[in-house]
Amino acid sequence: MPFADRVHEIREIWDRQAASYDDQFDHGIGSTAEQAAWDRILSVVAEGGPLNVLDIGTGTGFLALELARQGHQVTGIDLSPDMLEIARSKAISQGLSVTFEPGDAERPAFPDKHFDLVISRHVFWAMTDQAATLSTWHRILRADGCLAILDGDWCTNSPEKPDSSRTPTAEDVRNVVQSNGFTRVQIDELADLSEALNERAAAEGRPPDHFQRYLVWGYRAA
Q1: How far apart are CA 63 and CA 6, in angstroms?
Q2: Rounded to whole angstroms, how far apart are CA atoms 132 and 116?
Q3: pLDDT digits (tens, 9 = 90+) for 15-28
Q4: What is the pTM of this model?
Q5: Quick one: which of 61, 83, 105, 146 has the fewest CB in 10 Å?
Q6: For residue 152, what is the enclosing H or E element?
């Protein structure tokens, strides 16, 4: 599919989901335990600062807003204008300064060595060419800058998905990140976040959260 057609298709898909996106169970923070988990997770990859951060595939701005709340300078990009509009409204209502602008996750158009931290949430599993995407993300990171990928194996162990539709595991992502120019690559299995989500699920009478969530992070060599 030509690049322009692919972008148009992705934009339409996410524009249709924008209005209800934040209604999904794990797309926000619903308890003090979840907030504590997210504070810990972001402290792992956003040490010191303030950092210049790019949130790739920001959607309605969850990560961008959490990082801005911690004092970082954040840019969030997404292909969906409707998602970005919601993100901007949230920033205004929360009194936070974040730059939200259109941008393709696979081809973010920024100068070389521009960001201290490049981060994504629930994005990397859908990349059509992971190596090419990582090459671009590597290019826009400063020396010793951090790449952080928050994602999950959304199909394995899911009663809603066939085994044949397997999505990348943490080990899969670690291996491809290590193979594409990043060092000190590590995995965090996000046990505290999973526990907090399951506590809220039980309190709300929901089924347990069975997804294998993870953080994979590493650094551009100096």
Answers
A1: 25
A2: 20
A3: 666 666 767 778 88
A4: 0.88
A5: 105
A6: strand 141-153
